[in-house]
Design a protein that fits this description.
Length: 190
């Protein structure tokens, strides 16, 4: 997983990693997770236990913003295998100097990048192309009884989604609270 750069943000914790693709006449090869290189880059020790693969047919499909509460909190390592997404995370670590602030970025399958999101963030994404495939690692198993969320277009989290009309949402994603009503289960140390 040769990491060519690690971009950090004004919010501590998340990181966008750019990776190297080895190209030849057949195409290219890319390591997307390598424990040794991760450690050498100084990234936090994480115990990835599950990989997820999500297909979204419609452009404007919006998933989130989701989290699992401790003791089943999840860090996530996100990549796009086909298409493009607008990815958004909101800091919900109580006591964090950046509580309520967000990081938003576009992930594109044409660019070898992975987005690392530590526990303590609500996470969501919106597809910018039809037939988009997102692949991600998480550090705890699916525990639906611990799931929580934030309303994707809540006024308080103020995420500048590229598509606001005619989005495709799951039923439950209509009903999450806005940031002001969230009782966050995270503290900065989680
Ligand atoms: C998340 C998840 C879902 N499922 C099942 C439950 C359900 O039948 C189906 C779809 O689940 P959901 O509606 O929760 O899928 P989705 O809305 O894509 O949920 C995901 O959203 C993104 C933004 C995240 O950050 C993820 O952590 C996860 O919460 O897949 C699993 O079996 N394992 C899992 O880990």
């Amino acid at each position: 997983m040769p990491i060519t750069s690690v971009e950090t943000f004004s919010i501590s914790g998340p990181a966008l990693l750019s990776l190297k693709r080895a190209g030849d006449e057949r195409g290219w090869f890319c390591e997307t997770w390598n424990a040794r290189d991760w450690k050498e880059a100084g990234l936090p020790q994480e115990n990835w236990v599950q990989d997820n693969y999500a297909f979204s047919a419609e452009i404007g499909t919006t998933r989130g913003l989701h989290f699992q509460a401790p003791p089943h909190a999840q860090a996530k390592l996100i990549q796009v295998v086909r298409g493009r997404i607008f990815d958004a995370i909101v800091d919900i670590r109580t006591g964090s100097p950046t509580y309520g602030q967000s990081v938003c970025l576009v992930l594109n399958s044409d660019q070898p990048q992975v987005f690392y999101i530590p526990a303590g963030f609500a996470h969501g994404y919106q597809t910018l192309d039809p037939d988009t495939l997102v692949y991600y690692k998480v550090t705890d198993h699916y525990a639906p009884e611990t799931e929580g969320g934030l309303l994707w277009n809540g006024e308080r989290s103020a995420i500048d989604w590229p598509i606001r009309e005619h989005v495709t949402l799951s039923k439950r994603d209509h009903d999450w609270p806005d940031l002001g009503a969230l009782k966050s289960p995270f503290t900065q140390a989680d």
